[in-house]
Amino acid sequence: IHEMDNRRDSESEESEEENPAEINTIWIFSRRFQLSVPKLASRRRVVQELLSDLLQVSHNLFSDSFFPVLEPIIGVGSACEGWSPHKEEDVVYCMFVPLKPPRGHAFHLEPDSMGGMPQTSRRIRVELVCTCTGEQPDQNMLCFLHHSEEELKRNQAASLLHTLCTGPYLDGEKIALWFQTFVISAWSMVPQSRHYSMKVVPSCRSCKMKLMKHSGRSLFVETVFGVQQGDSDIFLSSQPTEAQLPPSTTWLESYAVAEAKFFRHVAMQAPPRSCHLKCLRLCARLLKGSGLSTYALKTTVMHLLTLIPLSEWQHKYLLMRVDDIMCYLRCCLEEKRLKHFFFDNEDMPKEISLPPAFQEAQPLNLFQHLAQDPAAQTEALKEFDDL
């Protein structure tokens, strides 16, 4: 970082005029790696409108039931952040649907059996709560706690515990199957059905849809379910990681909403034609096929966006910023340490709300596997240098 700071100091003393050779190189990079992705925003709006319309139908259909309450969608992932590393036809638009407990129910987040801080996986225990007392008792429903089982069966829909839970715990696979079934049955009720045909793609923890226009153009949408941790931007997600497929009642900690919020914050503060999204797209293309994950790259860029003034992410600095990103990654590989962005980070924008424990927790190391395996680190460095 100090070397990068010194280099930037010398750069700032140079003429503000752009170097023609560098402009030409940037243009070649842009064409070669298809860095321009202007259709992401318009297609994202189509997907957001579709999901919002589907959720409106769900509210009408399930208003008298006790399924989870589906909150307004939140666009997450690279396509919603504006920089997808994939070719246009392979982009997946990921939508996060927060779940709230229905009437007469409460969610309690339980730590996993391993204990310790911070928790990266939890179970969501569903409890029945009394609805016949309190300031505003619900006159339109029977209390699950104070009416007989026979009366409840005869006069009221089943509780969430009897539909989408396994034991007392919310089941991610059951929720995904329930939503998939709903989408298939409700498709004809949304305006988009006149313009697209829709196919639900098999998925055990989310709802994946392929939308096809008559022209042959396709859109891929994935709906992921989450439960908010307190009032923070951190959620427990139904979606497993590539390396981990936990039991269906285990929900993994997700930072996707906080990440999307961070990129929206940067977009509002950055100069016009900021190059940070092109840097992400270019570096993702450069690193394709290597052992370095896209998430490690994104974490690196988020760190640098707080370390390097946003005024220095103008388009004319694209090659310098790409160099900074690759140098930062190289240093992290050498040190076998890449600090998770959302833990113990003094540079976190105030707009992002994190659980209090995140400021006190030991930062997660995304390169912990390299610290535990010297041979893997040697191979990663060789691979990186070859790139």
From TrEMBL:
It is found in: Membrane. InterPro entries: ITPRIP-like, Mab-21_HhH/H2TH-like, MAB21L/cGLR. Keywords: Membrane, Signal, Transmembrane, Transmembrane helix. Residues 290-351 form the Mab-21-like HhH/H2TH-like domain. It comes from the Eukaryota. The keyword Membrane applies. The keyword tRNA-binding does not apply. Gene3D superfamilies: 1.10.1410.40. Pfam families: Mab-21_C. GO terms for cellular component: membrane. This is IPIL1 protein. It comes from Vidua macroura.
